[in-house]
Amino acid sequence: MIGSAAQLFLTVPRLNRIPWLIHGFGTRHWKLSDFRKRAGWENFKIIWLKQVHTERVHFIEAAPTRRLQGDALATNRPRIFLIMKTADCLPVFLVDRSKGVVAAVHCGWRGTRRGILEHVVDGLRVRYGCRPASLLAGMGPCIAASCYEVGDDVRDEYRASGLAQNVFRPIGGRPGKYLFDLREANRRQLIGAGLDARNVLDVPLCTRCDTHLHSYRRDRDTSARLYNFIGMKPIETS
Ligand SMILES: [Zn+2]
Q: What is the pLDDT of residues 85-131, one digit of tens each?
């Protein structure tokens, strides 16, 4: 996207072909107030979480009566936008075309280590009867491995949790420092949870490199968050 005209949000072509689905990975040009400006989106309820780097999933079937904490949202109801805020972490959408179910997931290194995507896929199976092999996944922009330096502490936590170590690449001449591939770690988790690799789709941009995106690593405390959203239009019957 670098150098191109400013886009408000990015989409996955295969998800765009689902007529009742609305989704987008927001750029820094997409604001919360923009949801109300789109024709047909005005009466969608907007749901977001206090995101806390856990594996906690909330199933939204009615308007929540309190502020929810967690890192994943799922629904089988139309006219609801599930929002995940990110700035370097990976946003992931899940879609079940046959059941009419969507989910939005916030995957940082901590949530990934806790197996958040496995929890979500399992939750969709139990709650809504979704078959993992039928799910489509859309992975949005996140910090790329080449830009994401981590220390021994992160790698040690992954090792202690029994997770694959080859998503960490040692940095030459800097003992105890690694480049961490957050996207790949989550892709493996989806496939491990039963998704077909051909159904795991990507918007493979780096938040730190692309100045149309917010990056915590680039901008630190001045960084804002990107608004990623997914929801369903009501099925029209005539
Ligand atoms: Zn980068």
A: 999 999 999 999 999 999 999 999 999 999 999 999 999 999 999 99
Q: Enter the pTM of the model.
A: 0.95
The C-alpha atoms of residue 214 and residue 87 are separated, in whole angstroms, by 5
Domain containing 146 equals 13-232
Total structural domains within the chain: 1
User: Ligand 1: distance of its center to the CA of 147 in Å?
Assistant: 5
Helices of type H across 59-181? 109-113, 116-128, 152-160
**Residue 37 C-alpha to ligand 1 middle, in angstroms?**
32
CATH of the domain at 101: 3.60.140.10
User: Do the Cβ atoms of 14 and 34 come closer than 8 Å?
Assistant: no
Domain membership flag for residue 5: no
Q: Is 88 a member of any domain? A: yes
Q: What average pLDDT score do residues 205-226 get?
A: 93
Q: What does the alpha-carbon distance between residue 126 and residue 148 come to, in Å, rounded to a whole number?
A: 35
Residue 170 within any structural domain of the chain = yes
Q: How far is the CA of 51 from the centre of ligand 1 (A)?
A: 24
181 C-alpha vs ligand 1 centroid, how far in Å?
A: 11
- Is residue 1 pLDDT above 90, yes or no? no
In a domain, 64, yes or no: yes
Ligand 1 center to 178 CA (angstroms): 15
